[in-house]
Structure to design on (292 residues):
């Protein structure tokens, strides 16, 4: 039986190799922030007939506008997010819609101010911070503080994997990306807690002479089938959404795909091994004063 805990340093190194390129990209290039974070224009347009989103996207693209996201509402209404549009740009775009697609009515044309974009960024960062603190408190109450720290390290790993991937490949980041990160954190912590719960049960029935490494390794094996089945089920749904869901949700689903896979990995190869190292470190620290 493969021993996950004895080989934990290999998985630590693998995690560093996965995360490091993304961190370097973040440091030198940052993220490709979308309109939600950099400001821009939001147009709501209603056509007098049924229109496909590809038709709207083609017109916007041919006008030389960078479309952050085009959302369809019903058969005739569309919400278009682009870089900042002047009054002349808006008029040209509406004329182009009328000429190539059909009569269109402009329901709304708003400018997203950079101040609002900055506020959205800090609120998103605050939401992530609050979620992390609450999870540490919950895990500390249910298990112990060291497991809370190990879980947060695993969650940080998952977040950095997704953020680093988007930075490396210059994929646009918008408000849906923040929702994806929060969802990934919720999924990953659930998987980690399942393993921690099994560790707690096995600690109560720990056999004499059984090491902590062996006990945790046994706990991981006992929950491994459940973890694999869960992640595969979620991945199948996400793959279907990525292929068939349309371009509007592609980036959100891509972030979820990467995050779910990373969450399953970190729950097994990072969270529990980190907790073992924290416990062993505490044990060594207790021995040193006793020897003195």
């Amino acid at each position: 039986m493969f021993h996950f805990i004895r080989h934990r340093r290999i998985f630590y190194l693998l995690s560093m190799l996965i995360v490091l390129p993304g961190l370097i990209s973040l440091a030198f290039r940052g993220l490709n922030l979308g309109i939600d974070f950099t400001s821009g224009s939001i147009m709501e347009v209603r056509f007098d007939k049924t229109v496909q989103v590809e038709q709207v996207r083609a017109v916007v693209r041919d006008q030389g506008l960078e479309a952050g996201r085009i959302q369809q509402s019903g058969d005739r209404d569309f919400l278009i997010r682009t870089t900042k549009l002047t009054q002349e740009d808006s008029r040209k775009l509406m004329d182009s819609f009328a000429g190539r697609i059909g009569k269109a009515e402009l329901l709304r044309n708003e400018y997203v101010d950079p101040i609002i974009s900055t506020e959205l960024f800090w609120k998103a960062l605050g939401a992530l911070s609050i979620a992390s603190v609450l999870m540490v408190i919950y895990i500390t109450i249910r298990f112990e503080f060291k497991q809370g720290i190990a879980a947060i390290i695993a969650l940080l790993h998952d977040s950095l994997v997704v953020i680093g991937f988007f930075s490396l490949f210059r994929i646009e980041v918008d408000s849906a990306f923040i929702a994806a990160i929060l969802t990934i954190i919720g999924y990953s912590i659930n998987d980690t807690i399942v393993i921690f719960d099994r560790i707690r049960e096995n600690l109560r029935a720990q056999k004499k002479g059984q090491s902590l490494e062996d006990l945790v390794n046994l706990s991981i094996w006992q929950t491994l089938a459940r973890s694999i089945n869960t992640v595969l089920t979620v991945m199948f749904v996400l793959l279907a959404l990525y292929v068939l869901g349309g371009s509007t949700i592609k980036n959100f689903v891509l972030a979820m795909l990467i995050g779910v896979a990373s969450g399953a990995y970190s729950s097994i190869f990072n969270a529990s091994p980190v907790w073992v190292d924290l416990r062993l470190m505490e044990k060594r620290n207790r021995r040193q004063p006793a020897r003195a």
